[in-house]
Amino acid sequence: MILINLLPHREAARKRRREAFYASLMLSALAGVIVAGAIYVWYAAQISDHQGKNLVLSTEIKRLEGQIKDIATLQAEIAALRARQQAVEDLQADRNMPVHLLNELVKQIPDGVYVSSLRQDNQIVSLQGTAQSNERVSELLRNLGNNSPWLNKPELVEITSGAVTLSPRDQRRVSNFTMKVRLLRASEVQKAASAASAASAASAASSAAGKASAPAKT
What we know:
By secondary structure, this protein is an alpha+beta fold. About 65% of the residues lie in helices and about 20% in strands. The chain has a 4-stranded antiparallel beta sheet with strand order 1-2-4-3. The longest helix has about 90 residues. The mean pLDDT is about 85.
């Protein structure tokens, strides 16, 4: 027996394919929404995590900045205390500076030189006086620069010719001078003495080493 299908089967198949396409399209869209939602949730979680970390870092930075300010203040206070301590030590050490100054001037002023004015400004001492000749002034400069551990860097400011009347018939030419010299502190004298001692020890050791390495004469 032969069966003949008179229904529009092509239209039905086309409809089924269309419905399957729409269904797959909806499933794809739904899958895309789910994936996009998952990605959004993941990024939101990452952003929230980074924001939390940034908040922690900001809090720590503010705390460290406060500590740095406290440390800077403490360092400034320590520096001020050290400066005051150094000032007190300098004052204590400088108590004897006038004594050393007068003692050295007595030692270093040669015969024929007379000091008429003496003025000290911090560590700079100004001398005014009269000398029998320019050579006496030069000798005083050499003595102050080379022979005194407490005085250094003498500087002749001015020298002029003058005359001194010893009697109505006796006048002598003299040299009026003004000079400056630096008065050292006790700490500077100690440093200079230590450096000189170290240099002397090194020179002695070098000389001894040179003699030891020299070949013996036969």
